[in-house]
Amino acid sequence: MTDQLASVRYLVDDVQAAVDFYTVHFGFTVRTDAVPAFADVVRGPLRLLLSGPASSGARATPEHSRVAGRNRIHLVVDDLDAEITRLRAAGIDFASDLVSGPGGQQILVTDPAGNLVELFQPA
């Protein structure tokens, strides 16, 4: 089963903006492009399903559950300081300050729809 991908669905307001965000800033590649309804992007074993308002995934979601939540994808980076500098220069919004703990350092950014992305550098 090594060829299987782990899939996560994010509901987004603008599929193209989400595709651009993940491909330009985090090295994802487009797997399926049905913009404006849906696209999926891949990075390693992670398949991120980007479902716009017209997609079946978004239509099946109860109205009270359509807002971005506290769940997030977790991307491991080699040099968090360099990533922060690069993303700030690109105008990316941060949702937290840098947090350090026994396992490493992390910071949260938001995609264009407000979904969280955790950038993590192990200790």
UniProtKB/TrEMBL annotation:
Key words of the record: Metal-binding
Coiled-coil annotated residue ranges, if any: none
Key word Calcium present: no
Residue ranges of every copy of the VOC domain listed in the record: 4-122
Biological processes per GO annotation: L-methylmalonyl-CoA metabolic process
Gene3D superfamilies per record: 2,3-Dihydroxybiphenyl 1,2-Dioxygenase, domain 1
PROSITE patterns noted in UniProt: VOC
Gene Ontology molecular function terms on file: metal ion binding; methylmalonyl-CoA epimerase activity
UniProt keyword annotation of Metal-binding present: yes
PANTHER family per the UniProt record, alphabetical: METHYLMALONYL-COA EPIMERASE, METHYLMALONYL-COA EPIMERASE, MITOCHONDRIAL
Protein name (Swiss-Prot/TrEMBL): VOC family protein
Source organism of this protein record: Lentzea alba
